[in-house]
Amino acid sequence: MRRITKIGAALAGAGVVVGMTAVPASAASGTWTPYNWYTNVGATGTYTKDSRMVTVRGTVSDYRRDGYTACVRFLFTEPGTTGVYSTFRIVTSSGGNFDGSGKASIKMSSSRTGHLYVQECRLKAGKYSYGKGKRIY
Fold first, then answer.
1. What is the distance between the alpha carbons of residues 60 and 106, in angstroms, rounded to a whole number?
2. How does pLDDT run across 89-137, given as a tens digit for each residue?
3. Helix residue ranges, H only, the chain
4. Which of 32, 77, 116, 122 could form a disulfide with 83 if both were Cys (CB 3.0 to 4.6 A apart)?
5. What is the DSSP letter of 84?
6. Among 56, 61, 45, which residue's Cα sits nearest to residue 98?
7. Which domains, ranges and CATH numbers included, belong to the chain?
8. For the segment 66-87, what is each residue's pLDDT rounded down to a tens digit?
């Protein structure tokens, strides 16, 4: 009986080790939410990061018609390089700015894995206004 228990524990231990080696040691994931700077703009989502790439997924929401298009802006940085900004906004099916209650999906990848920042923004008459930036990692 002891022999069977030892074999079972050894196999279970080997399974855990095999499962752990499938994921890179530097991989990380989490959620992101910017500071709630504008009452009619919302954004939330997740990110996955490893040593080579960071992928951001989520949604940006506009809660009512107020003359502004809701958007969210990300800043991807890497030590010794210039940061890269990426802005996502809600657009109409013809590509124009959307004003009203709506939601759009976000998906973006970058090789700049140093730090990730996010901030709410809104657009009116071709001019962006930005809320306070928030460091995610």
1. 7
2. 999 999 899 999 999 999 999 999 999 999 999 999 999 999 999 999 9
3. 2-21
4. 77
5. E
6. 61
7. 25-135 (2.60.40)
8. 999 999 999 999 999 889 999 9
